[in-house]
Design a protein that fits this description.
By secondary structure, the protein is mostly helical. The chain contains 3 helices and 2 strands. The chain has helices spanning 2-22, 29-34, 73-79; strands at 39-41, 57-59. The protein has a two-stranded parallel ribbon with strand order 1-2.
């Protein structure tokens, strides 16, 4: 869904750049995309909103993800204290030391 919002809101800017670079005979993005066999979208479908899609759309979410690293000793010990552990991560926005127990 985010892809479509970006695409349709910025399409006129991209077409303007293509028009200036290649001239008025260059086909529009709408025309070019109508001939495309596939559309590659850099988006994670698991966290996107539910929406209808086509089988011509290939989601590439996570393509830039780095390979996992081994946990350092502190976190390895923490994660192995119990047979099952749930880790909640708020990224770098929330300072977990300020969350009440």
């Amino acid at each position: 869904m985010m892809y479509y919002k970006f695409w349709y809101s910025s399409r006129w800017m991209i077409e303007d750049l293509l028009y200036n670079k290649f001239g008025p005979e260059y086909p529009s993005l709408k025309e070019i995309s109508s001939y495309a066999a596939y559309t590659f979208v850099y988006e994670e479908p698991l966290i996107d909103f539910a929406h209808p899609t086509l089988n011509r759309i290939v989601y590439l979410g996570g393509i830039g993800a780095r390979p996992p690293k081994k946990l350092d000793e502190h976190f390895d010990r923490l994660m192995s204290l119990r047979s099952k552990t749930v880790l909640i991560s708020f990224g770098t926005v929330v300072m977990t030391h300020r969350i009440p127990e």
